[in-house]
Amino acid sequence: MKRLLATAATFALALGGAAVASGAQAEPPRGTSGYPAISWGACENDTLKARSAECGFLTVPLDYSAPAGRTIKLAVSRIKHSVPDSRYQGVMLINPGGPGGAGRSLSVLGELVPKQAGAAYDWIGFDPRGVGASKPALTCDIKYLRYPRPPYLPGTRAIEKAWLARAKGYAAACAKNGGALLRHLRTTDTVRDMDALRAALGAEQINFYGFSYGTYLGQVYATRYPQRVRRMVLDGNVNPDRVWYDANLDQDIAFDRNIKVYFRWVADHDDVYHLGNTAKRVEKLFYAEQAKLARKPADGVIGPAELTDVFLQAGYYVFGWETVAAAFASWVNDKDPAALRKLFDDANPEKAGADNNYAIYLAVQCTDVQWPASWRRWQRDNWRVHRSAPFETWGNAWYNAPCRDWAAPAGEPVRVSGLAAPPVLLISETLDAATPFSGSLEVRKRFPRSALIEGVGGTTHAGSLFGNACVDNTIADYLATGALPRRVKADRADKRCKPIAPPDPTPAAAAGATERAGSRALQTRLELQQHIR
User: Fold this and answer.
1) Under a CB-based contact definition with an 8 Å cutoff, are residues 461 and 215 in contact?
2) What's the start-to-end Cα distance of the chain, in Å?
3) Where in the chain is the domain with CATH 3.40.50.1820?
4) Are 434 and 212 in contact (CB under 8 A)?
5) Helices marked H in 201-238
6) Which residues is 496 bridged to in the sheet?
7) Among the options 81, 184, 386, 461, which is catalytic?
8) Cis geometry, peptide bond prior to residue 148 (ω within 30 degrees of 0)
9) Coarse DSSP helix, strand, coil percentages of the chain, rounded to the nearest 5 percent
10) CB 194 within 8 A of CB 80
11) Domain 41-136+186-240+417-529: which CATH class?
12) Is 274 marked active-site?
């Protein structure tokens, strides 16, 4: 789903450079598909290297309707099972979401599964077509998401025209740089790639772990190839009935609700942040500062759009709530913009390929289904939603606006059906804003052998394997034996757990959190969370 603001300040540990296979790639052996087989070598990424992972590239057709034509390469990693072969349970493909999330480093995910249930699988991370270390990777304009930018709220015709021109320009840049690749970046293309990866690995079936948009990949794969699915964990479920224009309007309402939850948390800790002792006061302060920044950006660059992007992180996760609040407090109380600017800068670096995630996000969503061509439709819908949900509505609209001018033709969305699929484990917190809970209920209906775990009242998006024992132990049991929670007859979750707890920013609690951060498991979780969209 929509890109989040994941920062080095919030998640102090980054995975480092892209994992690249070492050794010669020329004239590799031929696979059963007729394309070169994966030539495995050592990984350069330190995190993967420390776990003896293997890295390589899978060659696939650019256009599956012309298999003898141009090919592209997908970057892949593998961490093999560590149990005896008699207990081996097969390959586990992982996707972190996005669309546009790079997944090759996620082969380390298996070590986070409790009870060592992940040890029986080969964990396969991969960068989808056009993403990350895959070749070619799409990039259009690395400066597009950087400041200075107009305010998101189109309060004047001049602001509206400026954003329309920006969006059209970005779509044109992608058309120029993407070439033929732009026509082959739909969800169905990546699903074909997943099946090619299955074949290249010599597996009759795959296991799959998908976060966020990755759940939609899983749904479509299980619809197209149900007999090739063994087990699936889908966390933060896309509503297959709402792709993609309607899904973004649903997000706007959900993020507005979640930011109010966050404002209440900030108010509860007024002794730490001094931003107001009620949610209403914090909310009023946020919008007042937004208006001031429209007139005079902080440090000359942090305007109302940038402030919204910084706070958007808090709508996705409870992870980093204290970092965002502390940065805002430094600005409000001390007129020091450095922390706000760092949060924004860390999430929006100006370097080669910096917009790859965004470019692929658009390339997939703009071509999976036709978006409204009429700007009047966008105006009507977004002003309607804005009236009750002002926090993110117009920011989300402009984020998606290049779809109106996208060069590649749109296809028809897949009619998702899990009637023939095996038992699937679904996960969601009740107030997930990026993929609202209604989507998990819809997927549960379409997959009649599935079971849904709910983190009751939680606001975190796709946060499994992050230390919530009630959720994570259920995942471990499913991966170990295939056992699911008993399915109830009502239209609700089948198992209810406490959600991931918000942080405690008091000095004593913060000191304890710093001590705990040294554990390898927590470091890995923090690293991986940056990749989940």
Assistant:
1) no
2) 6
3) 41-136+186-240+417-529
4) yes
5) 213-224
6) 454
7) 461
8) yes
9) 45, 10, 40
10) no
11) alpha beta
12) no
pLDDT in tens, the chain (533 residues): 654 443 333 322 222 233 333 333 333 345 555 677 899 999 999 999 999 999 999 999 999 999 999 999 999 999 999 999 999 999 999 999 999 999 999 999 999 999 999 999 999 999 999 999 999 999 999 999 999 999 999 999 999 999 999 999 999 999 999 999 999 999 999 999 999 999 999 999 999 999 999 999 999 999 999 999 999 999 999 999 999 999 999 999 999 999 999 999 999 999 999 999 999 999 999 999 999 999 999 999 999 999 999 999 999 999 999 999 999 999 999 999 999 999 999 999 999 999 999 999 999 999 999 999 999 999 999 999 999 999 999 999 999 999 999 999 999 999 999 999 999 999 999 999 999 999 999 999 999 999 999 999 999 999 999 999 999 999 999 999 999 999 999 999 999 999 999 999 988 776 655 555 445 555 565 566 555 55
Single out the catalytic residue among 39, 212, 428, 440. 212
Q: Contact 312/392 with Cβ under 8 angstroms?
A: yes
Retrieve residue 453's tokens.
Answer: 């775990």
Q: Is 68 exposed, middle or buried (0-12, 13-18, 19+ CB in 10 A)?
A: exposed
322 phi/psi in degrees, rounded to 5: -70, -30
The Cα–Cα gap between 506 and 491 comes to 40
Of 381, 432, 472, 494, the catalytic one is 432
Radius of gyration of the chain (CA): 22
Structural tokens at position 55: 């890295």
What is d(CA 247, CA 313) in angstroms, rounded to the nearest whole number?
A: 19
Whether this prediction's pTM lies above 0.85 is answered by yes
Structure tokens at 198: 């299955």
- Is 432 known to be catalytic? yes
| Catalytic status, residue 127 | no
